[in-house]
Amino acid sequence: MARVADFHRLLAPRLTVLVTTMDERGKTDVSTFDFVSPVSFDPPLIMLAVGPKKHSYWSITRVKEFVVNVPTEKILDKVWSAGGPFDPNESKIQKAGLKTEPSDKVRPPKLSECAASIECFVEDARKSGDHIMVIGRVVATHVNEEYLDAKGNLKVDVARPPLHVSENLFAFPYVTKSV
Ligand SMILES: Cc1cc2nc3c(=O)[nH]c(=O)nc-3n(C[C@H](O)[C@H](O)[C@H](O)COP(=O)(O)O)c2cc1C
Fold first, then answer.
1. How far does the centroid of ligand 1 lie from the alpha carbon of residue 158, in Å?
2. Whose CA is nearest to atom 6 of ligand 1?
């Protein structure tokens, strides 16, 4: 029988994103997140759940800006590397080999190799169990044209964003069907 504590393994696979942040000293960071979801169309809001010991938690709640970057299968190894611990003596962005570009409206950079980037201002942050639920207001979006269809959807079968199953296991189940 499945254990209650393993419920998150049953809500899988989950879209996995790279969140870029900047701390109060101007140091940029990247962290992998799969507790992420849109929660409102108007205003446009995104929810992230972040552990309170994470460096990205401090940056998000103090600088109050972040970028949600949607990776592709091509950079799966970098997605995994960005899930490693923060080290004040080196850059996780450089260590993962990720290229950055300035964002339009927020200080943290966006990631050049990602299919899409969503710039956010922090609207709210509240404790939710052992994580902090951060609500970000979307203030700018960017999509790599090669991954965009005529309706404005991500071409998921081309971008093939990694979906997290658990630990170091990812799924790429991309067959699209219209109903
Ligand atoms: C696939 C994957 C998904 C993750 N999802 C989350 C998440 O949703 N929230 C979170 O706080 N940490 C999550 N983590 C763990 C963080 O990425 C990890 O703790 C990272 O070291 C945090 O870095 P930071 O201290 O520089 O912010 C995830 C890690 C991986 C590999």
1. 25
2. 33
Q: Domain map of the chain by residue range? A: 4-171
Pocket of ligand 1 (CB under 6 A): 16, 29, 31-35, 49-51, 54-56, 80, 83-86, 92, 164
Predicted TM-score (pTM) of the model is 0.97
CB atoms within 10 A of CB 165: 15
Q: What's the CATH superfamily of 4-171?
A: Electron Transport, Fmn-binding Protein; Chain A (2.30.110.10)
Reduce the DSSP state of residue 38 to 3 states and report it: strand
Atom of ligand 1 nearest to the CA of 33: 5
36-83 confidence digits (pLDDT tens):
999 999 999 999 999 999 999 999 999 999 999 999 999 999 999 999
* Sequence-separated (6 or more) residues with CB below 8 Å from residue 78: 18, 71, 96, 97, 98, 113
